[in-house]
């Protein structure tokens, strides 16, 4: 092997000329993205909340950390919507092209109280963490 070929083989082995050995830049470090900031609230996200008040059973909301809101109940088809925090104590989601704004009245490990702004009215909804297992009760068929 000529000295030029040997030098090239040695440099290739060391990875010279490869970008994989370059040091990381500061902006390459993991940071909270804008999406994370809009969907990251300790205690709220990635848990199943079931409605504690109301006549119809099994109403639930799940605020996923990826910005998806899952809404379901024992009597209605599930819905997937985008959601985001609008402040530390308020959030919004979209239903059928309409934004629903809500204030977080209280949030603990066991309870979530939302005040939904529906036009000129405010409707308070109380949720608790879901019990596992949960099965919807038989609903009367009309």
Percentage of residues in strands: 35-45%
What is the number of beta strands?
8
Query: Helical amount among residues, as a percent range?
Result: 10-25%
What does the average pLDDT come to?
80
The shape, in one word, is globular
Strands of the biggest beta sheet: in what spatial order?
A: 1-2-3-4-5-6-7-8
Structural class: mainly beta
Q: What is the H/E string? A: HHEEEEEEEE
Report on this structure.
The protein is mostly beta strands. Helix content is 12%, strand content 39%. It has two helices and eight strands. The chain has helices at 3-14, 34-38; strands spanning 48-51, 60-63, 68-72, 79-87, 90-95, 98-107, 111-118, 121-129. A hairpin with a 2-residue loop joins strand 4 (79-87) and strand 5. The longest helix is centred in the first third of the chain and has 12 residues, at 3-14. The model is unreliable at 16-32 (pLDDT under 50).
Write the layout of secondary structure elements.
Layout: H1 3-14, H2 34-38, E1 48-51, E2 60-63, E3 68-72, E4 79-87, E5 90-95, E6 98-107, E7 111-118, E8 121-129
Antiparallel strand pairs: 1-2, 1-8, 2-3, 3-4, 4-5, 5-6, 6-7, 7-8
